[in-house]
Design a protein that fits this description.
7-stranded parallel sheet, KR_dom, 12% strand, alpha/beta, globular, single chain, Rossmann fold, binds NADP nicotinamide-adenine-dinucleotide phosphate, NADP, sphingolipid metabolism
Length: 325
């Protein structure tokens, strides 16, 4: 009996160790460290909100920083704010990501890039029934097609980077890019699209020592969100409130921690971490320990996901019942 217990105990201990060793051997791509200091960080949508916070963070970490956005006035204000905060002069480029030639000219002028953060984004929240097709197209063009334009234009500049060290392409998604949310049909579709782009791109650029990341912030206090809140359907706010809101500089700090460790999925808060595990699916994972957590938590993660869905559908039902009374 004692022997049988000992055998069970050994099995219970050995199984996780064997799994850890197995995962250590197979996780791909391999772990990497991406330096920021003295490297060129190019940020789109860097004149406001999360992009501006990313530019501040990159400057603080000793990078050469370039920011791109449409409005020259907002770019000028951002440049002044960063100079005041860190003494660093960032390069600014006025271009619309929907215009491939304009983006290519900006990249040519900016020179070789080590870290590209494709952060620009627009959100028009409304039920599909109330969205104009022009608004759908606008989100797709800026969020998805604009990201293609930016990455395609920048790839030669990233491949020609001066030090040949590990480089990064980070895409700003959203928690609405991990799970569809009421009022976000077009926005979610544009952000889900980034995931396909990122997964396929990582296959294509791994040989060039370029590492792709997807950042998934929750609601974040920015001028963009302030505008959005004016027209957000009530149910969008109720569902989005499942994940606590963050400040832009907190998101920027989390984003850089993830970029520097080459993480494919970069969550920004605890709910984002859970969503990252629940939606890990076929995505790449560099950390054998995180792979272990994903494997062990897969079942319970699905239960948690179903609880979130239960809660959201209950809110939708309740809201409609209130409208009827
Ligand atoms: N705030 C949130 O709650 C939240 C949550 C999750 C994810 N995100 C994502 O985070 C990113 C930044 O959002 P934010 O809230 O910081 O937005 P924001 O405050 O509105 O800033 C958006 C930035 O993108 C630039 N931009 C917009 N359209 C552009 C275009 N066509 N070409 C070039 N630049 C363009 C804007 O400058 P110009 O207008 O001058 O071009 C600005 O610099 C977006 O991708 C968004 O989807 C935001």
């Amino acid at each position: 009996m004692a022997d049988a217990n000992l055998a069970y105990l050994s099995l219970i201990l050995l199984l996780p160790i064997a799994l850890l060793i197995f995962l250590y051997l197979i996780v791909r791509p391999r772990p990497v460290k991406i330096p920021i200091k003295n490297r060129h960080v190019f940020i789109t949508g860097g004149s406001s909100g999360i992009g501006l916070a990313l530019a501040h963070q990159a400057a603080k970490e000793g990078a050469r920083v370039s920011i791109l956005a449409r409005s020259p006035e907002k770019l000028g204000d951002a440049k002044n704010a960063i100079r005041l905060a860190s003494g660093i002069d960032v390069a600014v480029f006025a271009a619309d990501v929907r215009d491939y030639e304009a983006v290519r000219r900006a990249v040519d002028e900016a020179g070789p890039i080590d870290v590209l953060i494709v952060n620009q984004g627009v959100f028009v929240p409304a039920e599909l029934e109330n969205l104009e097709l022009d608004e759908v197209r606008f989100m797709m063009d800026v969020n998805l097609m604009g990201s293609f334009n930016m990455i395609k234009a920048a790839l030669p500049a990233i491949k020609n980077r001066k030090d040949g060290g590990p480089a990064s392409i980070a895409l700003m998604s959203s928690q609405a890019g991990q799970v569809g949310i009421y009022g976000y049909t077009a926005y979610s579709a544009s952000k889900f699209g980034l995931r396909g782009l990122a997964e396929a791109l990582q296959h294509e650029v791994i040989e060039d020592n370029i590492h792709v990341s997807l950042i998934f912030p929750p609601d974040t206090e920015t001028p963009g969100l302030l505008e959005e809140n004016k027209k957000r359907p009530q149910l969008t706010s109720i569902i989005a409130a499942s994940s606590s809101a963050m400040k832009a500089d907190e998101v920027a700090k989390k984003a850089f921690i993830g970029i520097k460790s080459g993480s494919f999925i970069i969550p920004c808060n605890f709910v984002g971490f859970l969503a990252g595990m629940a939606t890990a699916g076929l995505s790449p994972q560099r950390s054998f320990f995180m792979a272990f957590v994903e494997v062990v938590a897969a079942g319970i993660g699905r239960v948690a996901a179903l609880c979130f869905q239960w809660n959201w559908y209950r809110s939708i039902e309740k809201w409609h019942a209130q409208q009827r009374t």
